[in-house]
Every structure is written in C-alpha cells, then in structure tokens.
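BUG: 3D viewer hangs when loading the predicted structure for this chain

Environment: internal workstation, default settings.
Expected: structure renders.
Actual: progress bar stalls at 90%.

Input used:
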Amino acid sequence: MSSRDDSGRLELLQGTLDLLILRTLGLGPAHGHTIAKTIERGSNDVLQIEQGSLYPALHRLIKRGWIDFEVGTSENNRRAKFYRLTAAGRRQLAVETSKWDRLTGAIARILRPAAADGEP
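Structure tokens produced before the viewer hung:
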C-alpha cells in the first residue's frame, strides 16, 4: 500500500490493510479491484492499494477463515473472485475495530494530551 506521491508515502501499521479489507467487505461482497478502489476513494486517494499487497492479504484472510469467495463475472464480463465476510470475519472485524479504537486513542493521548483530556 502506498500513497500516490512516494515522497508523502504513508506506511500503515501491520494488520491495518486486513482491517480495511474486512471493513470494506462488511459493506457487501466485492472483487479485488473494487476492494482496492473502495479503500482508495474512502481515504480521498491518500491510500493506494497495490496488487502486491492486496492479494496476499486476501489469501491470508481466507486462510484465517475470515473471508471466502465465489467465482463470478465482473462488470466488464471477466471472470473474477468475489470475496465476502464469513461469520468469523464479522466477529473479527468487531474485534479489530475495537483494537484500532484503543490504539488510536492511546496514541492521541500521547500526541495531544490536553485535547485528549477534553481541554483546548
């Protein structure tokens, strides 16, 4: 995953792409290209998902039982895998979202201690 301008490239914490994929698939089944584009659009194009990152992450999530897929036809009449969350994936999405909220809250308290305590 990278940004469009390598000088302003954002590196994600390990596991963040998995969380973004799970969240995207929480909206409904999608093929790889749609998953990547949904994340890119949702980040106002700050994040760009490379195939070299996306497909290993999808395989990892399948192996963990958090997503599965079925083969179908894409909008441009090409054969494609459509990925979807499993029940275990929905539970994991909730777990990972909670972990993310705790992590970002902790980091915010360190970076902006007055703002995190409700002070201006």
